[in-house]
Write a structure and sequence with these properties.
Radius of gyration of chain A: 25 Å
Strand content of chain A: under 5%
Largest sheet of chain A: none
Number of domains of chain B: 1
Structural class of chain B: mainly alpha
Helix content of chain B: 55-70%
Number of strands of chain A: 0
Order of helices and strands of chain A: HHHH
Shape of chain A: rod-shaped
Oligomer: heterodimer
Structural class of chain A: mainly alpha
Distance between the termini of chain A: 69 Å
Radius of gyration of chain B: 22 Å
Distance between the termini of chain B: 41 Å
Strand order of the largest sheet of chain B: 1-2
């Protein structure tokens, strides 16, 4: 159809258009920052909710068995651990998003690291 | 919920929580299970507003959308992409549910910002029901899709056998953390913001501080507009995240 020089120029133009279009494309949803304060809020509520659920479970069991302080203390501690665990999980989720945005590939490494850390924490 | 805190000055009276009182609309008796209250009214208005935007706004089905239709299409596209991106392609079947959730919360929040209105989402009774619906949906979907393998979520195979029961209790508690934090976040944010606006409004009784108080109310109102949208967004995106966990329990 056209001479090779022309078609090459066309291809280059196409590439440039594609690159420009990609830079304008809306970003992936999970990558979007919905304000850092919200992330902080989320973690705090998770921690407190864990404690509260542990406290409630322990108190309920104590009332049931009539052994007031034992289960209360035990389950509050378990609740704290559970709260920290949930908090760490959302932190890991964020970290994965961060590394996915920067490097693209190595989110498996980040995942493994976070896993090990939570294990140590327990 | 009615609190009465007298300031140091004689005339300064704060009623920051009075806006959250549930009262019957017709007559005043006790609030029973089927009493029509201001909560009922504002929830109905929320539903009507959502209908007006999504049904009436798009009724013309114009190829070139008008203002209402553009907003409706924008909301649709926004949530659809969120479900696809966050929860995955196979979660698109849950799109109607998630769209309903988002539209309801966003409209309830924004209607609550009108003066003299009632913020339904500032009540834990409302947000807990919303969060529990999400919780049950996610749990049932998890069991239906994965069978009893879903219980493997609570039984950590990589830990030593002696530790597993303890870890199971921890995992169960952390599973129940999600609906609790889900509901506390939405109601807490809205209730706190609206109460703060009322407290600032209470200070306007002193002539000297009243200009400052008006500025503070304006600033808080701006923040509340942001919070209204962000909280609805956070609620929906976390629903998507939980849904993804139920569909693909990799943890």
């Amino acid at each position: 159809m056209t001479d090779p020089d022309e078609s090459e120029r066309l291809a280059r133009l196409e590439d440039r258009i594609k690159a420009l279009r990609q830079s304008k494309e809306p970003r992936h949803h999970s990558e979007e920052h919905y304000s850092q304060a919200q992330v902080g809020w989320r973690m705090v509520t998770e921690l407190v909710a864990g404690l509260m659920i542990g406290f409630g479970m322990g108190y309920g069991l104590d009332v049931l068995f009539g052994t007031l302080p034992i289960f209360l203390v035990l389950f509050t501690m378990l609740g704290l651990v559970a709260g920290i665990k949930t908090m760490m999980r959302s932190a890991r989720e964020l970290q994965r998003q961060e590394s996915a945005r920067e490097g693209g590939g190595n989110d498996n490494d980040a995942d493994a690291g976070g896993e090990k850390r939570t294990k140590d924490g327990d | 919920m009615a609190t009465e805190a007298q300031g140091e000055e004689g005339g300064l009276v704060f009623h920051p929580m009075d806006q959250f009182i549930v009262k019957p609309l017709f007559g005043d008796g006790p609030v029973g299970l089927f009493t029509i209250t201001n909560v009922t009214l504002w929830m109905a208005l929320t539903v009507i507003a959502v209908m007006a935007l999504l049904v009436l706004g798009t009724a013309k089905r114009a190829t070139i959308p008008g203002r209402m239709q553009s907003i409706g299409e924008l909301a649709y596209g926004f949530i659809y992409k969120m479900v696809e991106d966050v929860a995955g392609k196979d979660a698109v079947g849950f799109f109607p549910y998630i769209m309903t959730l988002f539209m309801f919360i966003v409209f309830a929040n924004f209607l609550g910002l009108l003066p003299m209105s009632f913020t339904t989402t500032s009540h834990f009774a409302v947000t807990v029901v919303l969060a529990l619906l999400v919780f049950f949906t996610v749990t049932i979907v998890g069991f239906v899709k994965n069978g009893s393998a879903f219980l493997g979520l609570f039984w950590v195979k990589s830990a030593p056998l002696a530790l597993r029961p303890v870890l199971a209790v921890i995992e169960i508690i952390s599973y129940f953390v999600r609906p609790v934090s889900h509901s506390i976040r939405l109601a807490g944010n809205l209730m706190a913001g609206h109460a703060v606006i009322k407290v600032f409004a209470g200070f306007a009784a002193i002539a000297l501080v009243s200009p400052l108080s008006v500025v503070a109310i304006t600033a808080m109102y701006g923040l509340e507009v942001l919070v209204s949208f962000i909280q609805a967004y956070v609620f929906t995106i976390l629903t998507c995240v939980y849904l993804k966990d139920a569909l693909h329990p990799s943890h």
